[in-house]
What we know:
Elements: H1 3-22, H2 27-34, H3 38-53, H4 56-69, H5 73-84, H6 88-100, H7 104-114, H8 123-135, H9 139-152, H10 159-171, H11 175-186, H12 193-204, H13 208-224, H14 227-232, H15 234-249
Amino acid sequence: MPLLALLVIACQVTCGLHVVRSGQERYWLYLIIALPGLGCLIYFLGIMLPDLLGSRRGRRTLNRLHDSIDPERHLRALRDELEIRDTRDTRVNLADELLRMGQAEEAATHYQTALRGIHSDAPDILLGLARARFAQGDFAGCQASLDQLIAHNPDFRSSDGHLLYARALEGQGNDLKAEEEYRALGSYSASPEANYRYALLLQRLGREREAIELLQQIQTHARRSARHYRVLHKEWLDLSQKALLDLQRS
């Protein structure tokens, strides 16, 4: 048998024993067997090396590897936790993760269930429910959740919630009211997303000159801001730049 094959088998045995003895998830065994060599390398870098080093960076690497191999592992843990303790926090944490994973319908159900007792008008839960309903395309339901939030929590402030409100109005075809909200957001929001979406609304309404001016303002502000601002908001700055170039070419 070639020496390389013997080395691969030895690595598989070593890694396999480590999986069993250290109580790791069983999917690591399948990976080690299914991908000889590569599976061992992934396991060594993701499990054995961080375990040896015991560093925070190693643990972060391990979590990223776990998430890439088994993206629903955290979701399963949250489901298990909810079965053990059905509390406001366990249900909201599960709903947040479901929403992050794109399972908005189930997330909305858990947010709705969490709105009970003293938490019946909790702003963070209502905001989560609004996000879930928006993700489902239920723009009227999203607005209703935010209206309830505002009515029962008049001092609550959230630029993300305000942006969601404007988008919900736009989603229902209420462009006039959506424009008012976008304009109000642009006066205080630190993120360029609000003005970017406002510019898209102006473009859709046939007001290209106003849209171009707004997109130019976004780029000018970015150039004058610290590098941290440009890094933090890169996604929206890039989209704004592309929209501006497209409008200028048309």
